[in-house]
C-alpha cells in the first residue's frame, strides 16, 4: 500500500527583509516579500528521500496562509512533491499556534496520512512547537527535531541531538516527524520540476470544509495577546581600529577597561 | 500566596542553572513549587529549597527516560491539577518547549515561548520576548487558562531565598505506551570542561574565517584564557569544523553573555539572531565592510590568525 506523506510548509516573510508588525501587532506579511521557509525545505527534502526509498509513496504539501502562500506550495511541488493543499480563509488572520495546529490537524486527517513531516521551526515565529501540537491533536507519536530520519516496515527511526545527549528514537506509523537543518541540504528544483509543478493539483480548503468555526481561530481565538512591541534601539557602532600590529593590544585595553580582564 | 509551578531541568538530580533562574522569576508571581521528574529528587531538593521552592513534587518512572516528551506532559498536567497554580514556568529547551506546548493544549491555556523576562501584571504574568532576530521586544500576556511560559537561559540572575522545599510524591498516570516514541538509546555528550554555551559570561566564536577544524584551537585558546565558552557560526559547523551543539544563531543556540567575541564571522541576520542581545560585542574580521562591525562596541579590522593569538597572549600576561 502506498505510503501517504503530508509535509507542512509555511510561507514566511524573508528574514533578510525589514520585518515588523501591523497596527494590530500581528506579523506584517505585506511589506516584506515572502517565501517558503528555508527550514521547511529540509522537510520537503527528507519527505522526498523517504518516498524514494519506499515502494510506493505519495507526497502532499500542505500550507495554511494567505493567497501568496501558494508560492511556497509551488516551490515544494517543483522540488518533487505530488500534490498540494492550501487552507485559506479570511478568518484565519492572526491565528496563533493552537489555532494553526487545529486547522492543519483537520486538513491532515482529511487528506489521509501515514507520516507527517514538518520543519524544525518557522523562521518568523520560531516557536518550534507546532509538530508536537499536531502529534497531540492527532493522537500519534511525535518524533521531532531529527537530524537523521528513515522509514521502513511501518516504523520511523531517527536521531535527535539535544544539549545533553544524542538520542535514537523509534515509533510506529502513523507519526509526526520534524527535521532540523542538520538533516541534509535540500535539492534545487530542476527546470523539469518547475514545468511539471505547473500541472500538479492544488486543492484549496476553507474553514467550512474543515468544520472549524471562525471563533476557534484568528485573532479572536488566540490565547495570547501582545501588549506592546518596541523596536530595539540599533546598537551604536563602537570604535573600529585597523590592525597594524597593535590591534590585539588595543582590543586587550578595551577589554581591560570593561573589566573583562 | 498562590503557587507557581516550575519544571526542573536536571541531570540525575544535578539542577541546571536555568532552573534557578526560573525559581527566581517565579517568586515575582507567587510561591514556587518545583516539579522534579526522574531520578535524583533527593539530591536536587536542597538546591531547589535554597532558591525558593516551598514544595518539591517528585515522580520517578522508567517512562520519563524511555519515552519522548509525553510522560513528562502527563506528570506536569497532574501537578497542575494537584496545585492549581497561577502560572507554569518551563525551561526553554527544545524538550521544554514541546512539553509546555502539549500541556497548554491539554489545559486549554495560552502559551508563550522563549520569554527573556517575566513579571507580575494586573491580569496575570507579562512575558517579554525578543523577536525577528532580536530587532523587536514584545510584551505579551496569556488570555486563556493557566499561563504556560517557557523561559530562556540567562533571563535572570539566580538569587537564593531559602524556603521549606518539602518533598512530596506526585501521583502520575502515564499515557499508555508512553506516547509511542521510544528512546532506543542515549549517548551523553562529552563535556568539554568549558562553561555551558548558553550560560557563559563570555563566548568566543569562530566562523568561516577560521578556515579549518585544526585552526579552531586558536579560538579555544582565547576562550580558555578568558574562561569562556566556544561558539561557531553555521558556516563553520556545516564545514564540519566544530560541533552543531556549539552553533550560535537562529537554528543554533541563543546566547546573551556579558561579552561576545566574533572572529572570522560576517554577521548574517541568522547569526545575529542568536547573539545580538549580548552586553558587549567585539569582532575581528579582515573585511572592514563586514556587517558584524555594525553591532560591535569594539572592532579590529585584521587577520584573525595574527590578532587572536596575540590577544590570547595579552590576556594571559595581563592576568599574570
Ligand atoms: C534558515 C537559516 C538558518 C540559519 N541559521 C544560522 C545560525 O543559527 N547560525 C549562523 O551562524 N548562521 C546561520 N545561517 C547562515 C547564515 O546566513 C550565514 O551563512 C552564516 O552565519 C555565515 O557564517 P560566517 O559568518 O562564519 O561565514 P561568512 O559569511 O562566509 O563570513 C566569514 C567572514 O570571515 C572573514 N574572514 C575570512 N578570513 C579571515 C581572516 N583570516 N581573518 C579575519 N577574518 C576573516 C570574512 O571577511 C567574512 O566576513 C542560517 C541560514 C538560514 C537560511
Ligand atoms: N501556517 C502553516 N502552514 C503549514 N505548516 C506550518 C504552518 N506553521 C507552521 N508550520 C509547520 O510547523 C513547523 C514548526 O512551526 P512553528 O511551531 O510555528 O515554529 C514549520 O516548520 C512547518 O513545518
Automatic annotation (TrEMBL), chain A:
Q: Which InterPro entries match?
A: ETF_a/b_N, ETF_b, ETF_beta_N, Rossmann-like_a/b/a_fold
Can you name a GO cellular component term?
cytosol
Q: Which domain of life is it from?
A: Bacteria
Q: Which UniProt keywords apply?
A: Electron transport, Transport
Concerning CDD domains, the annotation shows:
ETF_beta
**TM helices/strands, residue ranges:** none
Q: Which cofactor does it need?
A: FAD
Asked whether the keyword Transport is assigned, the reply is: yes
Residue span, Electron transfer flavoprotein alpha/beta-subunit N-terminal domain: 24-214
Q: How does it assemble?
A: Heterodimer of an alpha and a beta subunit.
Q: Which family does it belong to?
A: Belongs to the ETF beta-subunit/FixA family.
Q: Please give the PANTHER family that the UniProt record associates with this protein.
A: ELECTRON TRANSFER FLAVOPROTEIN BETA-SUBUNIT, ELECTRON TRANSFER FLAVOPROTEIN SUBUNIT BETA
Q: What does the UniProt record say this protein does?
A: The electron transfer flavoprotein serves as a specific electron acceptor for other dehydrogenases. It transfers the electrons to the main respiratory chain via ETF-ubiquinone oxidoreductase (ETF dehydrogenase).
Q: What is this protein called?
A: Electron transfer flavoprotein subunit beta
Taxonomic source organism = Streptomyces calidiresistens
What does the organism's lineage look like at the top? Answer: Bacteria, Bacillati, Actinomycetota, Actinomycetes, Kitasatosporales
Automatic annotation (TrEMBL), chain B:
- Keyword Electron transport applies: yes
Biological process terms from the Gene Ontology for this record are: fatty acid beta-oxidation using acyl-CoA dehydrogenase
The free-text cofactor remark is: Binds 1 FAD per dimer.
Organism domain of life: Bacteria
Q: Which residues does the record give as FAD binding sites?
A: 208, 233-234, 247-251, 264-271, 285
**Pfam families under this entry?**
ETF, ETF_alpha
Q: Which GO terms describe its molecular function?
A: electron transfer activity; flavin adenine dinucleotide binding
Regarding protein family, the annotation reads: Belongs to the ETF alpha-subunit/FixB family.
Q: What is this protein called?
A: Electron transfer flavoprotein subunit alpha/FixB family protein
Task: Tell me the lineage of the source organism.
Answer: Bacteria, Bacillati, Actinomycetota, Actinomycetes, Kitasatosporales
